[in-house]
Amino acid sequence: MSYRLHVNGQVHTVDVPGDMPLLWVLRDSLGLVGTKFGCGQALCGACTVHVDGVAQRSCQLPVSGVGEGKITTIEHVGTTPIGARLQAAWLEIDVMQCGYCQAGQVMNAASLLATTPKPTRDDIRSAMAGNICRCACYNRIEEAIRMAAGLDPADDAQDEEKAHAV
Amino acid sequence: MRSDRRMFLKASLLAGGGLALEAFVGAPARAAVAARPAALTAFVSIAPDGQVTIVGKNPEIGQGVKTSLPMIVADELDCDWAQVRIVQADADLARYGVQVSGGSMSTPTNWLPMRQTGAAARAMLLQAAAARWSVPATELATSKGRITHAASGRSCGYGEVASAAARLTPPAPDSLRLKQPAEFTIIGRPIAGIDGPRVLRGEPLFGIDTRLPGMLYAVYEVAPAHGGRLVKADIEAAKAAPGVRHVLPITGDGNADSGLADGIAIVATHWWLANQARAKLAAQWDLSAAKGHSTERYRARAQELLAAGDGQELRREGDPDAALAAAAKRVSARYGYPFLAHGTLEPQNCTAHFKDGRIEIWAPSQTPARGRELVQKMLKLPALDDVIVHVTRAGGGFGRRLLNDYMLQAAAISHALPGTPVQLIWSREDDIRRDYYRPAGWHGFEAGLDAAGRLTAFTDHFVTFGDGARVTRAGTLTLTMPPADLIPHLRFTQSQMPTVLTTGWLRAPGSNALCFASQSFLDEVAHAAGKDLPTLMRELVAEPRVIAPFGGRGVPFDTVRAKGVIDKVLQSSAWAERAHGSRGRSGEAARAKGFAFYFCHHGYFAEVVDASVAGSEVTVHKVWVAGDVGSQIINPFGAENQVRGAIIDGLAQALMGQSIEVVDGVVQQSNFHDFRLARMPITPDIEIAWVKSDHPPTGLGEPALPPVIPALTNAIFAATGQRIRSLPVRLA
Ligand code: FES
Ligand code: FES
Question: Which structural domains are found in chain A, ordered by start?
């Protein structure tokens, strides 16, 4: 089957079975490898993209179900103000370790900030609970989201981690 | 850590001008090392425009080595970090020597050679500038990639004299003056990971992102049970499935542990189509080898072995039997822990392209050079140079990618399809079911206390897996496990049983399990003696001394450094104020702190966990960490990330129900719903304190992990009175 997809402001035509998840269309048909495969079962969030601005697990979204939806991936999210702020915050406090989950984390966080510009600690923790970071960069992911939201990074956290030398 | 192998430097002119400086370790003149080629440990070049290029030698798996090792070179070079570009090296044992990211060894083995290389390049640039201006080099100063002569007011960038420097003879590494820590401008500064911006733009970096013209995607279906062999396969239906190009039954070498497993490769235009076609395979497997291999049975057998007696003696000091017989108080308990999977978030994958008798490979491997040799052997290629291994960034390692099974599979598939690049990707289910698991283990401990409450005797009967002759990978007992060497009477014994499961190293191998068992048991011993674990541990390390490793191999244990981190964490966590916590009244959460200490991978760590328990729910509020990894934290950003990651990793092992269960060799878990990883809501606050000591810096990928598990279980005991003697934590 042939599908017309709106991805990152461009229109692509792909010829794939309708039940192929969007993840594999992005990665293997369009060469957009920023969106990652982690579990294939909506359990890890590595494959998160936006469809019309809303975070979706692309491993569970058949290409036939995308329709006219506007897809944004990590390759393009930096062109949005929220995406750019998140990327800057991520780099400023060196959030990542291996980095494999981080596209999904940023996409999910961008979707959160779009609906909840000033999230509480609980808002962040529940919105991000579906995104696994195997390297466990969670403290800094949370902090970077607060920074990007213009909140005091340490404010809501109990005692912010301090490293002090003896 | 200290190497007596001599380092020498070689300078050459860069193509296009500029200085290229290579550092080799291993003096060819010396007989002992002549058999081993000299290995390039560092490579730095300075272009005429001032750009500094440093080769990142070891695989980047998230531990930050691609950033931290070049930081060491750049600091002694005294350049501007913004001028530095880092290039990842291919796997090349002859050229680079060991390129392993494992065992937290990247930092200790590279600290000195990296510094000397940077310092040598700087000295040559100075010498070149001195010659140009006809002034003594001693009158010149450097800063941020520029050379200045204060007296005459002259200055130039490194690039301007780089070509002239390339014609000079490099100085002897030992003659170089290295910076004092106070002079460091890059080391010790928080520097963001070098690949960060590219990761955040979604650029191709990871193994799974490799894209080659005409590339196809593959899955590799293996037997449902470990140790299974392929009998026959009906592949016609799978061949006819959408997008499928090839279906290839592949007979392995029967060595499931380090060789190629039997399997059926499905190769298609899209990975998902290859994976879908697996349902259409009709294969017959011989699963007889795995009959009876079930974790239930293993557990029962372990208890029988513990009951049956002591097993084989591994180490004895003093007279433990007499000491136990004479003890005023004896404490005994059994502990156990399960098999664990690694679950790197990037599934195992490898891209291979066999063409004209040579194979090119792109792999996220922690031991790429080892994989390269295995591929050459498996494909019977005439020369090692017929195998090229490009090292990609890896989406997590944790020890899983120290083994190269997926590389062999990709090579075998590609070899069967000459001219077509193939990317093999494992599904998450493949990954959970075919790991090199952290082996399960059991301990029967006994301890004797004298009338004064001092620990005098300690015995451990360890039950592990093995075939009688050999213990399974990562299933050995550490013979220096505390309180060994700290008390007069000790015995370690071992029994084994066979397993068909492949086992391997998981972050802080050995220690991640041994620390849980031994530090939890010592907490019991401390309570029996009427004190707490930190008090007991402080008594054991009270005498300042450096203890040589048992058997002469390994790392010495420094009681002063141990005491340093114990004292530090007691202070930072205000241990004295709330050591015993508050037992909750009915309905209320009980909350308490727990403590543990361990030494592994050169690092000393003491940790305190503040946790509360409500019913069967455990909440960790805060973890205090005190660590001593030497004189210098090279990159505080990366270092703290490693510690936090290790802490949360350990907590997940205890609290997320992690356990690989097997029935007749078939792994019962399959994905992140039944092998659960930590998620943001369980993340506690983590406070890290570095205790700096006058020792060369060592690695941080591992040593922070082990203590957090017993610190947690000891906190649970303090809060509830329930002893956690097996992992994962299950509360009654
Ligand atoms: S790959 Fe889609 S949620 Fe894990
Ligand atoms: S940074 Fe490695 S999985 Fe998140």
Answer: 2-76 (3.10.20.30), 78-159 (1.10.150.120)
